[in-house]
Structures are given as structure tokens and as C-alpha cells.
Amino acid sequence: MSTGVAIVGAAECDLGVTGKSILGLQAQAVGRALADAGLSLRDVDGLATTGVSRFSATQLADYFGLRPRWTDSTFAGGSAFEMFVARATQAIQAGQAETVVISFASNQRSARSRSLGGVVEEHTPEAQFETPYGPLYPLSYYAMAAQRYLHDFGGTHEELAEIAVAAREWALLNPAAFRYGTRPLTAAEVVGAKPISSPLTALDCCLVTDGGGAIVLTTLERARDLRKKPVEILGYGERTTNTSMTAVPDLTVTGAVGSGADAFGRAGVTPADIDVVQVYDSFTITVALTLEALGFCGRGEALGWIADGRIRPGGDLPLNTSGGGLSYCHPGQLGILLLIEAVAQLRGEAGARQVPGARLALAHGTGGILSTHATVVLGVEA
């Protein structure tokens, strides 16, 4: 199935330690994505972004001198960009916009702006029942989910570490990756790294880098006349489940169950049909929970399911082929880069990490503390 909307441009801005401003990186990302599509700012009548300020899309439109017919600044953490794809698709279908740019950039490493403590309002459940214990936000919450998962299903930290090991192998194939040119990683190194929040160590946690990117969407009809192979939006879904962990009935079940089911249903495909998968890897446990929730394997089965190299280069489920947030780039919100890597794979532009014959891709964003979940299924014509 197809929505009649396609991604026609995709590009990263500079990554790693850039020394550039957020708006400067945004300008890079948008300019490169439009050039990739063979379009210009004059063509843009829709804009979606978040993280620049409280008025993200407004500020970015003003910076570019645009007066878009449609904007979105939904703040949902790392899943926002997969949500933007759904909103932009609907706006294009409705005739509210014809060419939409979705973008994000952050200079958090250069600016040393990454905060481990969230601002908690008085009288909220988290202020009463969580904040007094001094959790690292969001790390301690994901660590609690990992602890529960390993307790319930009998897995080991060494098995969970396979996710970080696989991510590093993909990063070694990606010249843009922060960990490119280092060396392979072992499970023992992950387990033996600096403890951060039990059971997670520093190597279970995503990078802190500058970076970002942009994608350009338009109608499939128009896309066929543009520079690159159109990457069609086939399906999407989302769920918002919780702010804090206080009221979560089961830390091992996430809203990706619903977002994935909706996305697969709209696309008319199943997990078995997907050729390449990009899922948010803020922490190793995020990947295990997401794979199960999306239906790639059964509940409690993820660690055994990936143990034979299944998600490494050459495995039968290529996962986070850029190196992901664990070894490629994590500028605070990874969701836009998941989409960009999916597009590169479907166009056959991923170089040494290219998955042969990839025609269907899934990108899944997770935001907050397993709070927001958004899934997008993309495809190219044979």
C-alpha cells in the first residue's frame, strides 16, 4: 500500500564535534536535503522541527525567510520525527502543503549542554515518588527497565551487550560515524565498562554528539519527476504512554506494540517483510524492548534471538546500519537520522554498509522514558 507521499531528499548536517550553532547546523541539514532532492527553499511550503526553542518551526521559518502554509513543532522527544512524517503525509494528502521539510539539529557536545536532570514540576507523581531518590534522567529509568527485563526473562548483561557490539560493527563501515576508525567492541568490554546505573554501563548508553539532518517530502506523483528514487511512505503509527515510570504497569512492554501494529496494518506488510530496521537505541535495552514490541520476535526472546549475529553486518535482520545512537551519532534526538539512514538503504546509497536488495525499511522512534513511540514503514518500487 502507499499513501501517495514520498521522501525525495535526505541529508545529515555536520556530525560529531562541530563548533557550529544549532541554526547553522539546521541550515546545513535543510540545504543539503533540498539539494539532494533538486529543490530549493522556494519550493518549501511546510516545515516541521523541534528542539530549537519553544517556537521551533516559527524560529526556523523566520531564519530561512519562509512563510509556510503548514508547520509542526510537536515535542515528543526522539519519536517526534517519525510523528512528523505522519503529520506531513496527512497535510500533503489534504492539500495543505505540497513540499514539507522535516529537520533537526543540536550542538550539545560542542556546547556541553547535555543535562542528566529533568525539570520536574511540583505535585506531579514523579516529584513525589521518583525525584527524591535522585535518578539520572533518563538513564536510571531505562536501567530500571533493563533490571526488570533481565529478572523476568533470565537474560544476562553479556547477552544484552550484543546490541552495542553489533552497533559498533555497523559504525566501522560508516565514515560519518563517531566511532568509525576505532575498533570492534566485545561483550566483555561493554559489561566491564564504567558502571552508570545498574545494570547499564557507559557502553550501554548512547553517545553525546552534535548533529542532525533533514528530509523532504512531497507527492509521489511529483516525486517521480525529481532527482532521486522516491522512497514511499507506506504506513505509520504512534502511541503516547507515560510521563514517569510511577504508573507504568509493566516496564517490559512499551507503546511500540500499538504504533508498530498500526504502521504494519496501514502498509499491508508484516515484520517478516522488512529488509532493514532502524530503531532508537538510546540504550541497549531500548532495542531489545522495541524489537519484541514491534513483533520481530516474541516477548522475552530478544536476547536469544539476536545472539547468533542476526543484527550484525551480514545477519538476516540488518539493524541500525549507520551504527545508531550507540556508535554513530546521538544529538539528543535521533529520530531524524533513523529516517535518513532508511532512505539511504532503500536508494542503495549506503556504501560499505549497504544491505543488498533492500526494498522495505522500518524506522521507529522512542522518546522520553519509554514515553512516546512512533513507527514508519518506507518502501521503494521494484
Give short descriptive properties of this protein.
single chain; 34% helix; alpha/beta; Peroxisomal Thiolase, Chain A, domain 1; 382 residues; Thiolase_C_2; 11 strands; two-stranded antiparallel sheet; acyltransferase activity, transferring groups other than amino-acyl groups; globular; Thiolase
Compact summary:
With 382 residues, the chain is of the alpha/beta class.
CATH fold-type name: Peroxisomal Thiolase, Chain A, domain 1
**Domain module count:** 1
Strand coverage percent: 15-25%
Radius of gyration over C-alpha positions, nearest whole angstrom: 19 Å
> How would a textbook summarize the main sheet?
9 strands, mixed
Number of E-state strands: 11
Can you give the helix content as a percent range?
25-40%
Q: List the uncertain runs.
A: none
Describe the fold and architecture.
The chain is α/β, with parallel strands linked by helices and 382 residues long. The strands form 2 sheets. A 9-stranded mixed sheet has the order 3-2-4-7-1-8-11-10-9, sandwiched between helices. It has a two-stranded antiparallel ribbon with strand order 5-6. Strand 10 and strand 11 (372-379) form a beta hairpin. Helices cover 34% and strands 17% of the residues. It has one domain: Peroxisomal Thiolase, Chain A, domain 1. It has helices at residues 22-37, 56-64, 80-93, 108-111, 125-129, 139-153, 157-160, 162-171, 187-192, 220-223, 256-267, 284-294, 302-305, 324-327, 335-347, and strands spanning 5-12, 46-49, 70-72, 100-106, 195-197, 200-201, 211-219, 231-240, 276-279, 360-367, 372-379. The chain is built from 15 helices and 11 strands. Helix 11 packs across helix 12 (284-294). The model has no long low-confidence stretch (mean pLDDT 95). The longest helix has 16 residues, at 22-37.
